[in-house]
Design goal:
Elements (H helix, E strand, L loop, with lengths): L2 H20 L9 E9 L9 E2 L6 E5 L9 E5 L8 E3 L2 E2 L4 E12 L1 E8 L2 E4 L3 E2 L5 E9 L3 E2 L2 E4 L7 E12 L12 E4 L8 E4 L7 E5 L4 E7 L7 E9 L5 E7 L6 E8 L6 E8 L7 E7 L7 E9 L6 H6 L4
Antiparallel strand pairs: 1-14, 2-5, 3-4, 4-14, 5-13, 6-12, 7-11, 7-14, 8-9, 8-10, 8-13, 15-24, 16-17, 17-24, 18-23, 19-22, 19-24, 20-21, 20-23
The structure holds calcium ion (2 copies).
Length: about 325
Amino acid sequence: MSKNGGKMGKRIYLAVAFFMLFAGMGSPARGEDKNDNVNIDFEDGIAGWKDYSVGGEVMSQSSEEAHSGKYSLKVETAGANSLEGVVTTVGVSPMARYLVSVYAKGQGKIYLCTLGSNGWIYGKKTDLTSEWQELKLGMFARINVIVPNIITAAGTQKAIFYLDDLKVVKVSPPALSKAEVEPIKFEAENYYWNAKTVTDSSASGGAYAEGFRWYELAHDVPYPQTATPVYIYLKVWLEDNVQHTITITHGKPEGIESLARLKVPAAKEWKWLKAGPFQAGEILEKFTISTDGPKAEIKARVDSIVISTKDNLTDKELDAAKCP
Ligand SMILES: [Ca+2]
Ligand SMILES: [Ca+2]
């Protein structure tokens, strides 16, 4: 084989390896584990449910409406606070992904939320109608409880709604092999969403992404499908003397879930930060990087993202990592 042919062969091999790891081949055969499958149908009462805002809500087991059986949970909010509703606690096996869902109907705008280890996870704000609608969100539980909240989502409102069939279902971990991921680099500017792309010949790839608080500095970056824990390294820069955070989230399939919050040093220089390790099933196929901090007008930048199963990469190795 000629020199060029060898190079081409290697390139094709790398492209195939990349595709298999990042495009989900042989991945996620997700199903339900019956041992972690909770269904609260309110047929035996409403024990374990509490009012969210403490004092304003009236809760009752109701036969006026039912998605299953004869009963549902009826909630009447007082309209005194912007967030009112109900909350319960469900025991689960930790370090696993769950789908949380509940059926709702009535009057008002509500959403399903849970508190994860990196902050609140929000489902979609939903206008209730006289038909049952399913509210849902996905989350990775690091601890042995999930705390579903079903609360009003449109300022103060006197809402009357019915809830039934709250389910917490474990999503089986994807059937993945333990593949090592050599350092692979993604340029933030290639995963454009609402940040600005700044051309800079000294930046990796000749540009970086820049944005203010709550901007997405890289959107839907591909994530490898491997059973080996993965680290995400970020090359970031902050224009401030106050610490900000960079948040890694995914907004799919249900709800926006915060996966990690990294404190960015107020250094006004490029710094490599490391997030992880992330377990199989914790991050799905893609993730997004956004900025957060106490001041809205402060600029933050992300130049590159390196993904690897190696946990001790040096700045030099990170800078030298190759794009796919
Ligand atoms: Ca029921
Ligand atoms: Ca770059």
